[in-house]
Amino acid sequence: MVCMQLNPSFLHHPAKHQKKMMQQALYELFGSICFDVMFALTVPMSLWWLAGTLSLICIVLIIIERGCEAVWVPPFLTFALCGTCASDMMWLATNAGFGVLGAQIERWRIAPEPEQPKTSPMENIRAKLTGFWLDMCIFTGVWFAGNLSFSYDISFVRSVVGFLLMVSLLDLGLSLWHHVLHLPCMYTYHKVHHSVRITQPWTNEVEHPVEALGNATVKYGSLVLVSNCVQLSPNVAFAYFMFSTWYGVMVHSGYNLPPFDWISQTPALWFIITPQQHQAHHLNGAKKLGAITSIWDSLFQRIISMSIPKQPCLQPLAASSRLGKTWPVESLREISDDQLRELVQAVRTHGMIVIPNQSWSLNEQEKFTSRLGELTATVVGQAPEYFEVHPRIVRLSNFRADGTWKGPNYQGAEVWHQDGDYMRMSERHILTVLCAEQIPTSGGGTGFVDLVAAAAALPASLRAKAEGLRCFSSARRNAEYMKRDFTAEDAERFPDQWTPVLHRHPRDGRELLLMGSELSVLQDQKQPDPETTKALFQHVLSPRWMYFHQYKPGDVIIWDNLQTLHKALPFINDGSDSRLLWRAQARVTEAFPW
């Protein structure tokens, strides 16, 4: 039961002292309520730590205010001392709490602890103390720019309204600033912050001075603006400083601790940014660019999408009768060798299969793919962003791994092609494992052409012309199409290739039409044959041999590269939707018999 006992002499003090004593009594009441509530509930130790931190800071603020009043310290200096202590104590205690609680909060860790050396807490503390006088100057400036006074008699309702207004402005300002920092011309200042791929305690202030200046302008500017519109007590400002500091540390902590764990499980609170969402943003470029909520981020994305002309998306055509068969399995991570043989047989039979509702890590995708053959990657030219996240899994997206949008001119492989058509024939029997993580609202699927069915239905007159043709494929031309640098080393590794258009599958002998891609040129021994090339592509690109797959999150598709052509389907790429696929590939050799 909560009790508050007032000293009878309280009523005989002058009004100013009555107010001070009432303030102290309210602090005691607040601490008592927190203790009783937390004692009554079974709560994690992390919340006990937070309650203790808040209580300690309240006590320290009372001591500073009383001490400064006793020695006639000017109000602006009292405010600066209290503001600095409120912010720095919350920052220190929240970061230190992760180390103190240790194993008790391990189950809320979002991602495995990074292998790189940790930042020393003492280094961070020394840096914070070094900036003490700068903080004092900032808080002094806030005092004179704002409308704050220890003598204001502010109602509880007005204090709550003022606090919520400041938090809302902070959320708006930081969300807008985050969007600005992700622009190509500004990202160089944000790259320092994104160098932390796995967020962890003590890393929330890893940032470029330009980014830090923008963050500080938004944080303190929100207080100045609101206090000039609504009279505020400094104590409301201290509560705002403590909340903003605590939130910044928590979303960069690498732990989805309560209350964020509860928020993640509550659909009605979908708009609140959690540490888990922010970790996804740091690790793989997930879109969430909001600060405290995703409300402003969603609004900005809508404004951007309205300013870019819409492009129509292709609608799926009738599916090929052979491609796109569903192969149900609970988890590809745990399939047996017998199940794997059945899966490979399904790929051999159908050319391309769909395994829905899968969930795995990139390392697990790599491990599964390595069971199909020798790991490889059909990437020509310099494309480092493909491997930003994993050294052997290609990341295919209209957003970079750091969350920056590649812009409306982002170009995927939107021509019909075979992966690695510029490679030697002995290297081209490849199985591709593609996993869908994020999909746009409309479009963004992948189309396939059945080259086995197209070869079987080839008219006799066209077959006679095709028998003497070879497909010319160039790695250099492929790199130029994808706007990549092509080095001398690439040229030596990938010499130009001439492959018979009519070919036999190396595993089962079925006849194929090896068309390379729409960039290829078909020629006889003497010269290119553009008319036959056009006729063959018209035959191959008939809707009769096509299948269009529209992804759902968790879809895994596996196809035989020799049996199919494929291409990415267009979607509205205005920065409001993300298309994120992960591609692993295995080259089938004699060591991996079908």
TrEMBL record:
TM helices/strands, residue ranges: 25-41, 47-64, 76-105, 125-144, 156-177
Native source species: Durusdinium trenchii
Keyword Membrane on entry: yes
Keywords: Dioxygenase, Iron, Membrane, Metal-binding, Oxidoreductase, Transmembrane, Transmembrane helix
Residues annotated as domain Fatty acid hydroxylase: 163-301
Keyword Iron in annotation: yes
TauD/TfdA-like domain mapped to chain residues: 328-584
InterPro entries: Fatty_acid_hydroxylase (IPR006694), TauD-like_sf (IPR042098), TauD/TfdA-like (IPR003819), TfdA_dioxygenase (IPR051178)
Family: Belongs to the TfdA dioxygenase family.
Gene3D superfamilies per UniProt: Clavaminate synthase-like
The protein's name: TauD/TfdA-like domain-containing protein
Top-rank lineage group of the source organism: Eukaryota
